[in-house]
């Protein structure tokens, strides 16, 4: 039996992390900060200053902001929050935009001076919005993660001030307590009523956007391409296609919400949709699906904890590996099976770069899910990557720790170069 502290912490981690969000979470966080600043100002600003860290620039530049009529970028996200945002809804801040407001958002972008600059801090995640009207001003700042508002000011009056803690998400349950062994035991022991609400929402939201991605015309239509090319008879293809289709839709303006994982909708889709597709293929009970989703979600969160919310390392890789572990659990895999699945799959794609949120994320998701499935298939066939094979270390926890160091420290210069290449205007 797990200790009560471990059990309670794992339940709270799922409640903290599996949240609904409308649109890509970085532009939505910008819209959220803008809505807060506008609320503090008390009127529509006539000029705006947007200061963000490089990873925010990377993840907002190319993705379509929902409810803007297809607009992209920081200015569109900020304008959506100012014109139509409801700050009380946090990551669903622009979920209730009317058609009239879409036109107003577009007009606001065209008519309002907006200055965009790099954040003054070295924080990985930093969004600061200053709004002004005449002589009056207001300010809102979000750091560390998407809903962590640390400062609100109106003029010189401080309305909110919180300590900036860097990477530590001090208001959330302690993810340092996660281990793959304890995740496996927790999945076996958890009372379904303790996780049913968050997992039901994840199943409903994330499968709905995956199905919409296959119905509609979004981005490069990676999900459709996979099914057209390889057919839908193989569950491996369907798992990849549905996950990719969810990202197709989400990256290209679909106005359906998703349930996120590690602050990311793409990672929320990747860690859940393939497991759901496999469970339906196998005719698994709803209880077994819940337990497998516990494995996939918590494994993803554990892998991402050392990497950080944003980095040069593609988060879909960790989520695809988590999905592989969840699929292994559906097939009756024990702790050893899960551990080998994760090590194998992490060895395959670690180092895949994150060059922002955009249409090609769907293709990376398909590859990540494939790696997770292959990692499990390797173990089924008595094959494994061993400690000393590249960045693989002996034991799953050591390998996860190694991947975290690679992403959070080793790829910092890569991250800077990615952003530099993305914003160069003299390259096509």
Write the SSE topology.
Elements: H1 4-17, E1 20-22, H2 25-41, E2 47-52, H3 54-60, H4 74-84, H5 99-111, E3 114-118, E4 126-133, E5 136-143, E6 149-154, E7 157-161, H6 180-189, H7 192-215, H8 222-230, H9 235-251, E8 257-259, H10 265-282, H11 286-307, H12 315-330, H13 335-349, H14 361-380, H15 396-410, H16 412-423
Parallel strand pairs: 2-3
Antiparallel strand pairs: 1-8, 2-4, 4-5, 5-6, 6-7
Helix pairs in contact: 2-4, 3-16, 4-5, 6-11, 7-9, 7-10, 7-11, 8-9, 9-10, 9-14, 10-11, 10-12, 11-12, 11-15, 12-13, 12-14, 13-14, 13-15
What distinguishing features does this structure have?
single chain; 428 residues; alpha+beta; 60s Ribosomal Protein L30, Chain: A; six-stranded mixed sheet; two-stranded antiparallel sheet
Helical stretch count? 16
Shape annotation: globular
Distance from N terminus to C terminus (CA atoms, Å) equals 58 Å
Average of per-residue pLDDT values = 93
Secondary structure category: alpha+beta
Q: What proportion strand?
A: 5-15%
Radius of gyration: 21 Å
Textual characterization of the structure:
Helix 2 packs across helix 4, helix 9 packs antiparallel against helix 14 and helix 13 crosses helix 14. The longest helix is centred in the middle third of the chain and has 24 residues. The chain has two domains: 141 residues, 60s Ribosomal Protein L30, Chain: A (2-Layer Sandwich); 249 residues, no CATH class. It is α+β, with helices and mostly antiparallel strands and 428 residues long. The protein is globular. The protein starts with a helix and ends in a 5-residue tail after the last helix. Strands 3-2-4-5-6-7 form a six-stranded mixed sheet. It has a two-stranded antiparallel sheet with strand order 1-8.
